[in-house]
Amino acid sequence: MRRVALLIETSRTYGRDLLRGVKRYAHEHGPWSLFVEIRDLETMPPVWLRNWDGDGILTRSGSAAIAASVKSAGVPAVELRSTRRGSTFPFVGVDNMVVASMVADHFLERGFRHFGVFALDAEPFFIERRESFVDYLQARGHACSVLRQPGKSEKPEQWEAQQKRLMNWLSGLPRPTAIMACTDQLGCWLLDACSRSSIRVPEDVAIVGVENDETIATMSTPPLSSVRLAGEQIGYEAARILDRMMRRLKLPAQPTLFAPLCIETRQSSDIVAIDDEHLAQAIRLIRQRACEGLTVNGVLKVVPISRSTLERSCRRWLGRSPNEEIVRVRIEQVCNLLRDTDLSLDQIAARTGFTTSQYMLEVFRKTIGVTPGNYRRSLTSGER
Length: 384
What we know:
By secondary structure, the protein is an alpha/beta fold. It has three domains: 2-93 and 231-261, Rossmann fold (3-Layer(aba) Sandwich), CATH 3.40.50.2300; 96-229, Rossmann fold; 277-380, Homeodomain-like (Arc Repressor Mutant, subunit A), CATH 1.10.10. It contains 15 helices and twelve strands. A six-stranded mixed beta sheet has the order 7-6-8-9-10-12, with helices on both faces. Strand 8, helix 6 (184-196) and strand 9 (205-210) form a beta-alpha-beta unit. Helix 5 packs across helix 6 (184-196) and helix 12 packs across helix 15. The mean pLDDT is 91.
């Protein structure tokens, strides 16, 4: 029986998702004896690790002390946080370029033309999120204001100075502005600064965080939209790589990165930021009723706008036709149901406005590049 230590925080949703993925792999390919303890990112490494006679370690090295302890243990290990501390172990983590593009598209699809990013530069992956977000928007003709978080704010006076700085930054942004917060915690700080400044969210400022930590995201006011990371899939893959290391098999030459699953849209970004009242009404209607079988003709029966004007305005603001937007909304919901339910393809087609499951399969494959069945299997098998 393999003895594997899990130095992964239990204090965050993402860490618990990683643990679920590891457990699933061990259940399918074990047996493994798993050591796990209640910890956060900066919890000191356990004393027993110095003389541990185990077989492998999966670690989220939140400090130099943890990284050094894992290295000195002298057993195979996989890193799941960052290679900043000189780790030479295989790395499995998040594709932050896709995180950035997903958030940018989320805002662009809602009609935003002004953008900001609230950044934390403590780790390479935070920097990558920030730079990728700015670059993605610039490639599409949009500037992006950047505010960097200088460090911890543990004392009351530091917290107040920080929030005043945030309020000053927010007051100078055009309205409406869409902001990516590089973590959910930063997103909550932004929401607090908006509240203090009487800035309406999402009407004046829309915010999306990253990680979808449910406690943080749902406790904020208003609730914070956030990128849902593929934690369980990442944990599963990390366990698979560790298993290969323990059996002395070939390892990946490059870091293994997973795209995020989706954005959990909550009130902080749930808006259509378009000046054209009729177009905004049409887009809201599409997003509310596309999965009920809504057609372009159905939109025109509700919204007092001509077909040619709707087509022209939709292409101008969204870069696609009204029908393409209807299909996009339906396919997005198909992905959600494939990921979060065990519904059959017939049931999913019925719930997403497609006339038949075969038609849904054809549209899905054309849009996503794989069949619905293969997409679902990739989520449950730990594949990217």
